[in-house]
Specification:
Layout: E1 2-7, E2 10-12, E3 18-26, E4 31-39, E5 46-52, E6 57-59, E7 67-73, E8 78-84, E9 93-101, E10 105-107, E11 111-115
Parallel strand pairs: 2-11
Antiparallel strand pairs: 1-3, 3-8, 4-5, 4-9, 5-6, 7-8, 9-10, 9-11
């Protein structure tokens, strides 16, 4: 099992920046890919960006050039970061951390990001 705990959401003005973090613990050695998703009520959850174990990142077109994913590893945890710049009102959503292993898909509890003046 892998446990994911997100933090860092909140209210930010348009054009501002925010950083989300997700601490993965448990059987993190089984995880080969981590990602950030977001969801607006009434819409499907959409992929924001992902990062492979080897460090290869990919992003949704809507966030390319504004968002960056990075990670830090310790012996027992992996922390996934989402650095969000030039935020727009349409970035408002609940952001979820995701981890994939060979046999399982794990989700964090979600953290709300609201971009408004």
């Amino acid at each position: 099992q892998v446990q994911l705990v997100e933090s860092g959401g909140g209210l930010v003005q348009p054009g501002g920046s925010l950083e989300l973090s997700c601490v993965a613990s448990g059987r993190v050695f089984t995880v080969y890919n981590m990602a950030w998703y977001r969801q607006v009520p009434g819409n499907e959850r959409e992929l924001v960006g992902s990062l492979t174990r080897s460090g290869s990142a990919s992003y949704a077109d809507s966030v390319k050039g504004r968002f960056t994913i990075s990670k830090d590893n310790t012996e027992s945890t992996t922390t996934l970061h989402l650095h969000m710049n030039s935020l727009k009102p349409e970035d408002t959503a609940v952001y979820y951390c995701n981890a994939m292993s060979l046999n399982s898909f794990y989700w964090g509890q979600g953290t709300q990001v609201t971009v408004a003046s």
